[in-house]
Write a structure and sequence with these properties.
This protein is α+β, with helices and mostly antiparallel strands. The chain has 4 domains: about 1-180, GAF domain (Beta-Lactamase, 2-Layer Sandwich); about 190-355, Beta-Lactamase; about 355-425, Signal transduction histidine kinase, dimerisation/phosphotransfer (DHp) domain (Helix Hairpins), CATH 1.10.287.130; about 430-585, Heat Shock Protein 90 (2-Layer Sandwich), CATH 3.30.565. The chain has helices at about 1-20, 25-35, 65-70, 75-85, 100-105, 155-200, 205-220, 255-265, 285-295, 330-400, 405-430, 440-460, 480-495, 525-530, 545, 555-565, 590-594; strands spanning about 45-50, 55-60, 75, 85-90, 90-95, 125-135, 140-145, 225-230, 240-245, 270-275, 300-310, 310-320, 435-440, 460-465, 475, 500-510, 515-520, 570-575, 580-585. A 7-stranded antiparallel beta sheet has the order 3-2-1-7-6-5-4. Strands 9-8-12-11-10 form a 5-stranded antiparallel beta sheet, sandwiched between helices. Strands 14-16-17-19-18 form a 5-stranded mixed beta sheet. Strand 18 and strand 19 form a beta hairpin. Helix 6 (about 155-200) runs antiparallel to helix 7, helix 10 (about 330-400) packs antiparallel against helix 11 (about 405-430) and helix 12 runs parallel beside helix 13. The chain is elongated. It starts with a helix and ends with a helix. The model is unreliable at about 590-594 (pLDDT under 50).
Length: about 600
């Protein structure tokens, strides 16, 4: 009874410590010594499962025995085989002498005591274990005891006390495993967050993004060497090599890795290469050159992770680990595969960005070339056209009876107007700033209506400016360009309005902007044509509109002028029911008026 009382008291203290302490090593050490000091066993040893090996981490007993057993590594499968052959004593497993294999006996520690003929006496080849499982049934470790205090096989009461100590050891290991999982999860989450952030910053260059990502992976997984290699899957992209802590050099390149990965049909998958592997079924061509590099870098084993982007192999990640480094857990392996996916996404994003930048540059070059071509052709046409018009008008003055000269002059003037529009379009495409001053928009509207009033009258179209008030409506801009916008709006309305139609020009003044609306009762614009009405050289698909001469440059020029003044030019129309063009500008500020 006194021993039971001491055991229960020690157990109560251990239960409190197990549930409050985070130092698992100290708790396991106390449990092992409690089994020896309180229950009277000569030796108590606790092993923790590391991968597929049980490592003896805590031993209580004579110093020479502790020195022999501590840190001993036993394949977990060997112990599990013994459990299958053992007698079940609750959670304990008892292997009587004679039932253990010769191979296992040679590897096991056997106490130097003489066997006793008493069937209840403890035999030196007896083994008593307590498998340590988590609540979910996961094997976490094993506790083994030897040399009971009275030299006899433990009775039921002694086994119950031993089970209580074993339960506390299991709880301690389970708590430690859960803390490790939480720590690992946080560590892997930080790694993936860093890799994702690096991949999102490819605007600063793919090499820099890859460097940041690989450094995060190397730190999180404690690699000896980490390398990422990218290569173009087509004509796009550049080959990049990044390594840490040793920088990547051309000597580190193993082109055969790409060939071997392309031959695999189960990507994405992690492929491991050991420094002593004779051959590799998955990396038949690249294993040997990789092993040469591994020896130079003191890498014991390497993991190769392919970088896949939409089924295209765009690179690979190689992680090198030193000798005695534990294998990756399943969570770590999954995280490495996710790193591969994120790096592949970064490679693809970088290539898309490169393509976009190249296309933008090409479009800019094309736009510049188009503007230069238009300007050159327009200038070359301007001189002969001026000569043609001048001579035609001179001949017409001397020979008024030659009616064909009217057609020559009329078409030459059309060409002259086209050339003028081309030149203006070319100028405004490259211009960024203009000389601006205060402009009265109401005055511009009145001038435009006066200028086009004669043409409207000849076409039988009513044209009026509906002005509210007499105060000036002042904006800040280039008077010639703003007048061109208003003239274009009114001119188009008159041209595309049939006889007996009407065109009205109105103005609406708000607190900080002013709008000019030109509304007509003309042929209108289809929905399809409205999306292209401000595109250069676009002509309507409406046959009635095509019968009216035009260059397709007036509205694009007007919109460009409006935008350069901080305004907008928009249209609302319905085919067959007329159109309304709205030109909006910011009003001149009081500071500007001063």
């Amino acid at each position: 009874m006194p021993r039971n009382q001491g055991a229960l008291s020690r157990l109560a203290e251990l239960m409190r410590r197990v549930n409050s302490s985070t130092d698992t090593e100290v708790i396991l050490e106390e449990i092992a010594h409690g089994v020896v000091d309180v229950l009277g066993y000569g030796v108590a040893a606790i092993a923790r499962l590391e991968g597929d090996v049980l490592v003896m981490t805590n031993v209580a007993g004579p110093p020479d025995v502790v020195a022999q057993i501590l840190h001993r590594r036993t394949p977990a499968e060997q112990i599990l085989d013994e459990f299958r052959e053992a007698d079940r004593w609750g959670i304990l497993r008892f292997v009587p002498a004679g039932r253990m294999s010769e191979e296992r006996l040679r590897a096991a520690w056997i106490p130097e005591v003489e066997p006793n003929d008493d069937p209840d006496a403890w035999h030196p080849q007896h083994a008593l274990y307590a498998p340590l499982y988590s609540a979910g049934g996961e094997l976490l470790g094993n506790m083994a005891v030897d040399l009971p205090a009275d030299g006899r096989v433990p009775d039921e009461a002694d086994r119950e006390l031993l089970e209580m100590f074993a339960v506390q050891a299991g709880v301690a290991l389970s708590n430690a495993r859960e803390r490790e999982r939480l720590t690992d999860r946080a560590r892997l989450d930080r790694m993936l967050t860093s890799v994702a952030a690096a991949g999102a910053g490819v605007q600063g260059g793919l090499a820099q993004a890859m460097t940041t990502a690989v450094e995060a992976v190397a730190e999180a997984l404690a690699t000896t060497q980490a390398v990422v290699r990218t290569f173009p899957s087509d004509v796009q992209g550049h080959q990049i090599g990044v390594g840490t802590p040793r920088p990547f050099t051309p000597e580190h390149d193993v082109p055969e890795i790409r060939q071997d990965l392309l031959a695999l049909d189960d990507l994405p998958v992690l492929v491991e290469v050991g420094i002593h592997d004779i051959d590799s079924a998955r990396l038949p061509s690249s294993a040997a050159p990789m092993q040469r590099l591994m020896r130079a870098m003191r890498v014991e084993r390497a993991l190769v992770c392919p970088l896949l982007s939409q089924d295209d192999l765009v690179g690979y990640l190689v992680l090198g680990f030193a000798r005695n480094t534990r294998p990756l857990t399943m969570s770590e392996a999954d995280a490495v595969l996710e790193v591969g996916r994120l790096l592949a996404l970064a490679v693809r994003s970088s290539r898309v960005l490169e393509t976009e930048q190249r296309l933008v540059q090409e479009l800019r070059e094309l736009a510049r070339y188009r503007s230069e071509l238009i300007a050159t052709i327009s200038h070359e046409l301007k001189t002969p056209l001026t000569a043609i018009l001048g001579h035609a008008e001179l001949i017409a003055d001397r020979h008024p009876d030659m009616t064909s000269l009217d057609a020559i002059i009329r078409n030459a003037q059309r060409l002259n107007n086209l050339v003028a529009n081309l030149l203006h379009y070319s100028r405004i495409q490259g211009r960024r700033e203009t000389v601006r001053r205060a402009v009265d928009l109401a005055e511009l509207c009145e001038a435009s209506v006066d200028l086009l009033g004669i043409r409207a009258k000849q076409a039988g179209v009513g044209l009026a400016f509906e002005r509210t008030g007499t105060a000036p409506v002042v904006v800040f801009g280039d008077p010639e360009e703003l007048a061109r916008v208003v003239d274009n709006m009114v001119d188009n309305a008159v041209k595309y309005t049939p006889e007996d139609g009407a065109v009205s020009v109105s103005m609406e003044v708000g607190e900080d902007e002013v709008s000019i609306e030109v509304t007509d009762t003309g042929i209108g614009i289809s929905t399809a044509d409205q999306s292209h009405v401000f595109s250069a050289f676009h002509r309507s698909t409406n046959p009635n509109a095509l019968s009216v001469p035009g260059t397709g440059l007036g509205l694009p020029i007007a919109q460009r002028i409006a935008e350069s003044h901080g305004g907008t030019l928009s249209v609302s129309s319905e085919l067959g029911h007329g159109s309304t063009f709205r030109f909006t500008l910011p009003l001149r500020s009081p500071r500007e008026q001063g």
